[in-house]
Structure formats: structure tokens, C-alpha cells
Amino acid sequence: MFAVVRTGGKQYRVAAGDKIVVEKIGGEAGDKVTLGDVLLAGEGAELKAVDGLTVGAEIVAQAKGEKVIVFKKRRRHNYRRRNGHRQQHTILKILAIGEEKKEAEPKKAAEPKAEAAAEPKAAAPKKAPAKKAAAKPAADKA
């Protein structure tokens, strides 16, 4: 089975077990990520509906691309600028294709409210100490 996914503004054709290099995705090596923007999926010549499909992947490494030298020059003007750039990349290993998207489960509202109500009672806010009386003006001394 294969899928075409979009990440980092580019499209990639992937299958289970493939390793791809994509634009940087946050996470550490070994973290699992889900690519939810599936554009096309199928097996052989048959295509599947992509509604709700996701692609599961694992981050293999965070790496940098090769250095690109940017050199600017304007002849006869003594103008030369040299600059370099290394693009950040993430190497992904595709684990599975065709997982259903999991909808976010609604959080239980009663539990956080009970915890929030218990915390203020335990730790009451401290009041600032009263300020000392202001020093008498110099005019009163004379």
C-alpha cells in the first residue's frame, strides 16, 4: 500500500518501511508522529478514499542538509558578500499507512474544577506588608 502525503510544503510518495527526509518537524529521535494530510492512497492500480486516513511515522534523526554557499558580487564596485546556509531536516521512517484519525476525547470538566478549587484553599495568597510612613519633607526641618 502507498500514500501521497504533504508535509513542509512538499509532497512525498511513501509506503510502509520507507525512510524519507522532510523539512524539520519538532520532536526527538524515537518519537512517533502522525502525518494527517494524506492526498492519495491506494494499492497497485486501485485507489482508496482518503477521508480520515493518516500515516504513522517514527523520527529516526534530526539532521542538517549540505551547506549551500550564497555569493553575491557586483563587478567594478568592490562589492562581494559570502554567506552559507544549512537547512534543518527530519528523517522519518514510515510505520503504517491507513490508520483512522482518532478524534480528541472530550476532557472531563468535573476533575479539573475539583483540583482547581482545592488548590486555592490550601495555599491562600499572601498579603504584602504595610509600607512604612513616608519620610518628612525637608521643608519641615527648617
Characterization of the model:
The chain is mostly beta strands. The protein is built from two helices and ten strands, in the order ββββββββββαα. A four-stranded antiparallel β-sheet has the order 2-1-5-6, with no helix packed on it. A hairpin with a 2-residue loop joins β1 (2-7) and β2 (10-15). The model has no long low-confidence stretch (mean pLDDT 84).
Structural features:
142 residues, mainly beta, four-stranded antiparallel β-sheet, 10 strands
List the helices and strands and how they pair.
Layout: E1 2-7, E2 10-15, E3 19-23, E4 32-35, E5 38-43, E6 46-48, E7 53-64, E8 68-74, E9 79-85, E10 88-100, H1 110-122, H2 138-141
Antiparallel strand pairs: 1-2, 1-5, 3-10, 4-7, 5-6, 7-10, 8-9
Q: How much helix is in the residues? A: 10-25%
Percentage of residues in DSSP E strands? over 45%
The CA-CA distance between the termini, in Å, is 96 Å
Q: Which regions contain 5 or more consecutive residues with pLDDT less than 50?
A: none
Helix- and strand-based class?
mainly beta
Overall shape: flat
Separate helix tally: 2
Rg: 30 Å
Strand arrangement across the biggest beta sheet? 2-1-5-6
Number of strands: 10
Mean pLDDT: 84
Q: Profile the largest sheet.
A: 4 strands, antiparallel
What is the chain-wise order of helices and strands?
EEEEEEEEEEHH
Quick recap:
With 142 residues, the protein is mainly β. 12% of the residues lie in helices and 49% in strands.
